[in-house]
Specification:
By secondary structure, the chain is an all-alpha fold. It contains 1 helix and no strands.
Length: 183
């Protein structure tokens, strides 16, 4: 950068003034050039420092956002877990209620089936009783017909009509329907 110049000697006064002035001018130019480069380097360094500061600020912002998102994600996970627990509890309650209703319906169904079986048995008993009564009546009618067929024939006028036993409080208004008024 700085190169040493050889100064020529002047005759009586030391060095030649032109050489010295030239060296001073060169040194001044070099100094100004160095100052200019220094200022440019400082400006670049300042710009880089501003950029570094901005990058640090952005990194800090991103870190803060990351923390916020991590907290929010953790809250969402906790809420999801809580909801899963609540849903499982509610499902167990619904299943329990359904099982109780099912058991109650099954019990009621079995009770009704028992009642129906009892009614069927009663109806079967009534049918058997009715069949037995019809057989007896059929037998009685058959026996009566057999007796009629075996009895000698007599005129219907020869048999006096039987008087029905009238109750004590007999209403004579019904007399026209009584056997005495038939003719």
């Amino acid at each position: 950068m700085f190169e040493e110049s050889k100064f020529r000697r002047a005759w009586l006064r030391g060095y030649r003034q032109g050489d010295v002035e030239l060296a001073v001018a060169k040194a001044t130019l070099t100094h100004e050039h160095m100052t200019h480069e220094l200022n440019a380097a400082r400006a670049r360094a300042d710009a880089m420092q501003v950029e570094i500061t901005e990058l640090h600020r952005r990194i800090e912002t991103f870190r803060q956002r990351e923390l916020d998102m991590s907290r929010a994600l953790e809250e969402v996970r906790e809420r999801r877990d809580q909801m899963e627990r609540e849903v499982a509890s509610r499902a167990e309650q619904i299943v329990g209620d359904a099982e109780q209703r099912s058991a109650a319906l099954r019990t009621e169904g079995l009770r009704q089936v028992g009642e129906l079986q009892l009614q069927v048995e009663q109806l079967l008993g009534l049918r058997a009783g009715l069949s037995s009564a019809l057989k007896r009546v059929t037998s009685d009618i058959s026996n009566a017909l057999d007796r009629l067929a075996a009895a000698p024939a007599r005129a219907v006028e020869q048999i006096p009509p039987q008087q029905p036993d009238l109750p004590d409080e007999f209403d004579p208004g019904f007399a026209r329907w009584s056997p005495e008024t038939e003719s």
